[in-house]
Design brief:
By secondary structure, the protein is mainly α. It is built from 18 helices and no strands.
């Protein structure tokens, strides 16, 4: 019993470490657009998000029940070693995608880790396949599209309503709206993502006989999970904030307001229904939708493609890592210790690699180079075609003239380059764009 109690303690600590990584991995969901548009200073934004994540953790336990008794069958012989292995796989994948600056799903990393470890240790009987399909896979596919379409429609409506009004005055109003909607996303994130760790800890307590099956998370579990995700949020996942705020599209205040409002509504609805939704996928879909909704906006599909690839790899990749960890952990105490040492070594190596090119609140808004509009963007945008006739004199001007003009009219750059077919030549002449 003493060994089991010690192991459950290790699982609880590991679950809180995952919750911490979840916090800084998902800070971008609520605050990337607010930071990129200048509505809030970076440190102020993450502090507000952390506080509201903590509050949101106390508002519901429906998602926690989905984790503790919905996806994994706690009566099928699940042991604390299995949960420990599942958490290790989720943490490793979270850190790898954070290092790459990719907003992958912490939720799916957790699901993949638990499923992979359970399949190795218990078999298919330990996984509720129907629950995985209905409450994980279907929402994973549908949520980004729903949020993206809602954000695109809201962005177009927002610009239509503000047509003819002074841009400076409307920008102030939209920035205030962004702050409010970002607060709502942070609150929604606490109601959804903090509960996943609550569910894992509760599952560990059930497998160890500490609490009864199908029990609600104890209050100390709710408080500790809320504090862990709030602390991770406050430290800020600056690499992913840069990708969300600058790497997908250039976000203006009306777009940020529309994207965050649509994402918050989607997340809160899923929390009410008990769907363990990926807030990352919802918010990323909303940002892409807002880029398509603004006339002249450009979605950087190369970045979006890398994100979607990471989404698709998250479940199986975390599952494979956890499966290997579960195999070792099943060998006994030395196996558990080996998994812990390997996990610490991998996490330390990832952290050391991140220090080579650090990203923090001082350089988070240094976005990537502008990517030209692709076929998908051109098909979905309502942009007037370029005028027919000879190439404008600006297109034939030397690189110095282009640089001066681009500095004064940044929005004109992509349009002129695309319409005149001079993009590649100018890119090589003005690499500093």
């Amino acid at each position: 019993m003493e060994h089991i109690t010690l192991l459950i303690g290790i699982v609880i600590v590991t679950a809180l470490v995952f919750d911490f990584t979840n916090g800084f991995h998902d800070t971008a969901n609520a605050m990337a657009t607010t930071i990129s548009t200048g509505a809030l200073r970076p440190k102020t934004a993450v502090a507000m998000s952390a506080g509201l994540n903590l509050v949101g953790a106390f508002l519901s336990v429906e998602v926690a029940k989905t984790i503790s008794g919905g996806i994994i069958d706690e009566s099928a012989g699940i042991r604390p070693e299995v949960i420990f292995a599942g958490l290790v796989g989720a943490i490793v994948w979270n850190l790898l995608t954070w290092l790459a600056g990719l907003p992958s799903s912490s939720s799916h990393a957790l699901f993949g880790g638990l499923i992979g470890a359970t399949l190795v240790s218990v078999g298919t009987g330990g996984v509720h396949g129907e629950a995985v399909v209905m409450k994980v896979l279907i929402p994973a596919v549908a949520a980004p599209f729903v949020a993206g379409l809602a954000a695109m429609a809201a962005t177009r409506l927002t610009y239509r309503l503000a047509r003819g009004r002074d841009e400076a005055d409307t920008a102030k109003g939209y920035r205030a709206g962004q702050i409010a909607s970002a607060a709502l996303v942070s609150l929604a994130h606490g109601t959804n993502d903090a509960q996943k760790t609550m569910g894992v800890i509760t599952l560990a307590l059930i497998t160890g006989g500490v609490v009864a099956p199908h029990a609600d998370p104890p209050m100390w579990v709710i408080a500790s999970a809320g504090l862990a995700i709030a602390l991770g949020t406050y430290l800020g996942g600056w690499r992913i904030i840069r990708t969300m705020g600058k790497g997908i599209t250039d976000i203006q205040p009306p777009q940020g307001f529309a994207a965050q409002t649509g994402a918050a509504a989607t997340i809160l609805a899923s929390s009410h229904l008990g769907f363990a939704l990926s807030t990352t996928q919802v918010c990323s879909g909303s940002v892409m939708g807002s880029g398509l909704g603004r006339k002249g906006g450009v979605v950087r599909w190369s970045t979006a493609g890398r994100m979607v690839l990471a989404w698709g790899l998250t479940l199986p990749a975390a599952g494979l890592v956890s499966a290997g960890a579960a195999y070792l952990a099943d060998q006994g105490s030395w196996g558990v210790a080996t998994v812990a040492v390997l996990a610490l070594a991998i996490c330390g190596g990832i952290w050391a690699a991140s220090r080579r090119k650090p990203v923090d609140h001082t350089n988070v808004n240094e976005g990537p180079a502008v990517e030209p509009a692709g076929v998908v963007t051109a098909a979905l945008q309502t942009v007037a075609p370029p005028p027919a006739g000879p190439v404008p004199a600006h297109a034939e001007a030397p690189a110095e003239t282009h640089a001066a003009t681009d500095a004064a009219h940044p929005d004109l750059r992509t349009t002129q380059c695309t319409s005149t077919g001079q993009l590649s030549a100018r890119s090589s002449a003005s690499a500093s764009w």
